[in-house]
Structure formats: structure tokens, C-alpha cells
């Protein structure tokens, strides 16, 4: 029986690191923290957030990446519509939020939905309304505080730094998983292609 795992078996994108495939675990506005169960490839409810905050953007990971925290690289995708969990979304990378979570580096790539005309004109994090970044910072610092966990958002950086971080996570993935997933990677169909 062939086992499919979104982390290993979906391509990261032909134009990575500029445009990547993001696999969404948590829709914008959710209070549920869903995450990929690495062993089964299914989505599991990790917990319901303790605080009165909710995710400020669609949240997930970039497939075929790996970080020092033993997880794939996180991504926040700004989109004008709600994106359902386990949806693959082409994401144009515009920056990165550098966080320290429990004394570990925990970078979050910031991107816009490449096929959403209302946001895809943003090319760099500096183009975003200042409130958007304040909301992201506040969310990540607040939601962990009520869990008695120490988190600080160190800084926001532009797309060139994000490209470097993605490149590093691809290199670490290739070194850690030299054979990749158990099955050949699935290449998502371009937008607008019917079955």
C-alpha cells in the first residue's frame, strides 16, 4: 500500500523560493490549532487556543522543507478568501517574521496568494499596511502568553532574507531526507486546469 504524505510527496514549487506551494493547516480566523500529523499525513487538532485571538492569515507549511525545530518551514499566506485546511496554495513570498519560541528560532515566511488579484500586487513585506504586521506580531506573542510560554517576535525582514531562509530549509531537507518521501512527488495542477 502506498502511503501519501503532504510534507514529503507534494513539490515545494517550480519557482521556489520566489513562489512556493503552501499547504494550509489553519484557516484565517480559526481558534483551532491544526497541524500535520507527520506519521500519517492527516491533519490533527493540536489544541484550541487559550486566548481570545485568532489566526491573522492562512497558516501552514512549505512541503519538502525542514528546520531546526524538526518541522517543515512555516508560512503565513495573506488571501482575500478563506482557504480550507489541506489546500495547496501558490504563495508569492514577500518576507519573513523571525520569532524566538521557547528559546528556539522559529521563522514564519510571509506570502500572498499568487492567484488572488486583491493581494498579489504586494511584492515585499514593506508594501503591506503597517497594521497587518502589528496584528501578526500581537497574535503570536499573545496566544502563547496564556499558555505560559515565552515567545518574542524579533523582527520582520524582506523577501531576500525570506528567500535565503527557504533555501536553507530546502538544503536541510535534502540532507535529512535524501530519498524524500516514499512516493514520487505530486505536482499540483496549475490554477484553472479542469480534471
From TrEMBL:
SUPFAM superfamilies: Inorganic pyrophosphatase (SSF50324). Substrate binds at residues 33, 47, 59, 143. One of its GO terms (molecular function) is inorganic diphosphate phosphatase activity. GO terms for cellular component: cytoplasm. Its cofactor is Mg(2+). InterPro entries: Pyrophosphatase, Pyrophosphatase_sf. This is Inorganic pyrophosphatase. The lineage of its organism: Bacteria, Pseudomonadati, Bacteroidota, Cytophagia, Cytophagales.
Amino acid at each position: 500500500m502506498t502511503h501519501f504524505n503532504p510534507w514529503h510527496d507534494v513539490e515545494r514549487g517550480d519557482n521556489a523560493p520566489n513562489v512556493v506551494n503552501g499547504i494550509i493547516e489553519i484557516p484565517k480566523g480559526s481558534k483551532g490549532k491544526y497541524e500535520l500529523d507527520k506519521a500519517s499525513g492527516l491533519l490533527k487538532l493540536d489544541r484550541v487556543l487559550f486566548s481570545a485571538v485568532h489566526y491573522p492569515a492562512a497558516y501552514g507549511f512549505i512541503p519538502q522543507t525542514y528546520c531546526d525545530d524538526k518541522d517543515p518551514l512555516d508560512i503565513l499566506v495573506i488571501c482575500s478568501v478563506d482557504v480550507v485546511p489541506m489546500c495547496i496554495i501558490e504563495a508569492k513570498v514577500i518576507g519573513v517574521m523571525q520569532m524566538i519560541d521557547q528559546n528556539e528560532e522559529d521563522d514564519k515566511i510571509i506570502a500572498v496568494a499568487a492567484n488572488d488579484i486583491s493581494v498579489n500586487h504586494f511584492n515585499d513585506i514593506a508594501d503591506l499596511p503597517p497594521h497587518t504586521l502589528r496584528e501578526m506580531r500581537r497574535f503570536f506573542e499573545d496566544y502563547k502568553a496564556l499558555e505560559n510560554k515565552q515567545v518574542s517576535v524579533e523582527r520582520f525582514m524582506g523577501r531576500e532574507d525570506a528567500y535565503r531562509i527557504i533555501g536553507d530549509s530546502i538544503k536541510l531537507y535534502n540532507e535529512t531526507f535524501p530519498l524524500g518521501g516514499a512516493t514520487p512527488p505530486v505536482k499540483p495542477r496549475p490554477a484553472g486546469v479542469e480534471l
